[in-house]
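Thread: quick sanity check before group meeting

JM: Hey all, I'm pulling together slides for Thursday and realized we never actually wrote out the predicted structure for the chain we discussed last week. Dropping the sequence here so it's in one place. If anyone has concerns about the input, flag it before I start.
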Amino acid sequence: MKTCLAVDIGGTKIAAALIQSGQILKLKQLATPSSDNPDELTRALRELVTPLYEQADYLAVASTGIIDEGILTALNPNNLGGLNQYPIAEVFEHLCHRPVMVINDAQAAAWAEYQLLDSMPSSMGFITVSTGVGAGFVINEELVTGLHGIAGHAGHTLADPNGPMCGCGRQGCVESIASGTAIGKAGQLYFGDECTGEMVFTQYLDGDSHAKDIVENAAKTIANLVADLKISLDLQVICLGGSVGLAPKFLSLVQHYLKQLPPAYQIEVIHAHSGANAGLIGVASWAEHFFQQTDL
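JM (edit): ok, ran it. Output follows.
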């Protein structure tokens, strides 16, 4: 039985786990370096994986950003800073001397959620609404990564041509309106320069009218994204995750706005269930599938 060392690189933490047959045997994590120096990330990864990699047959890495030919890039460089163009696969190969497979973290989480569905449909989607907005898709029972690793960056589809400027350089992306970052920025007008998305949600639950407008606008934007994905890909179900996606009342708001659209745009939207370890479990499962095909 082969053992996978799975690594999940996020904006706030990096986690690593030894996984066999979908079960986590050992788990370590540390805070993502706040520095925009790529050497700091490499140092953190070395500290995290050195005690674990000798027990692994291969590595599976889920990371924020676009993974193209093992290089980490970004549509929104603000989310990655100095880590843009980071040679992530090469770094892990050098650190661990093991075969490495790298995909986007939302893609990995989508595969994890797909495994947990009661009756596995042929096509499903996963949307994470957190610091940014990302997605992953399983079509005809296969995870879609795309030729250049870009599949699933649905947060950079157009929501409002007159909306805020997105960090990707396009005006009015879904991410510029519905992400936790965007919600916090919208709240600064009413709640001060230090306002965060979490603070807006607290005000929303307390009944503040300004927070209500911001949160409902974000939910309506995600509902329209869901509708766009349904009509484009004919998905059967969508799982909603991320700190915003799982926030109190947010799913019910999305469902409310979706029900106002014509039937062709409607689809079942449910909460994601795999939790904080979705990236680890999903990327390990997909790597097992991938390496079986390549006779590792």
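AS: nice. The radius of gyration is 19 Å. DSSP finds ten helices and twelve strands in the chain.
JM: adding both to the slides.
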